[in-house]
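User: Working on a comparison across species. This one is CoA transferase subunit A from Streptomyces vastus. Can you predict its structure so I can line it up against the others?
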Amino acid sequence: MDKVVATAAEAVADVPDGASLAVGGFGLSGVPTVLIQALYEREVSGLSVVSNNCGAMESGLAILLAAGRIARVTGSYIGGNKEFARQYLAGELEVEMIPQGTLAERLRAGGAGIPAFYTPAGVGTQVADGGLPWRYDGEGGVALASPPKEVREFDGTEYVLEHGIRTDFAFVRAAKGDPHGNLVFNKSSRNFNPLAAMAGRVTIAEVEELVEPGGIDPDAVHLPGIFVQRVIALTPEQAADKKIEQRTVSS
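Assistant: Here's the predicted structure for CoA transferase subunit A from Streptomyces vastus:
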C-alpha cells in the first residue's frame, strides 16, 4: 500500500479543532517540524497534545503554543520553555505532568492495545495520591487537580495503575522511510517518535529520505508500517533544517 502524500498541508488537512495529537521528539531532536508548521498554517485550535515537552526556541510545538492553539498538554518536561511555564501558571493551559518513563510506556501500551498497567513510579507521591495541579486559576491557586489513582500491592511492593494513551493523530519524524510506512530513526531522534507513532489512530510521518519498497533491510526497521497511515518526503532543505538547542564547543 502506497501511503505517500504529496504535501504536509494535504497530510494534515483532516485534523480538526479539538483533536488529540501525539508528537514525537525530545527538545529539538526528532521533532516533526514540517507537519507542525502545516497544522499551524491551517489555524487548528483547541488541541490536546501528548509530547515529552512542548517545543523549544520558538520551534516545533512552541509555535502552536505561542499562538494559543493548544488547550491541554500531557508531558513530562517543561524545561526552558518560558511561554509554556507562563501559560500554565496563568491558568491558560491545562497540563498533566507524568514521569518520563511512565509517559513512554503509556504511549507504547496504548499502541499495543494494552488498556492499563501497574508501575512503581510515582507511588507515595502526588502522582499516585492526586493533587498535582492540572490547571491554575491565574492567582496562585489550583483550579483543577489530578485525581488519585488505584494503588495495589504485588509481592510486597506497591504499584500505581496507569492507563494507556491513544490519540486521534500522531506526528513523527524519521531519517528514512518507504512508501509502506516502515521507518528508521537516527540516533537520539529514536526517542518518543516510535512510541508516539504507535499511539496515534492516524499516524503521519515526515521522512528525511524516502526510499523505494525494499530499500530498508527488514532487520533495520525501527517502526513497522502497520503503525503509519501517511508519509511525506521532506525536501533536502527541510531535512537539513535542524536547530541546536544548547550549543557547546571545546577550546
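For your comparison, note: The chain has a mean pLDDT of 95.

User: Helpful, thanks.
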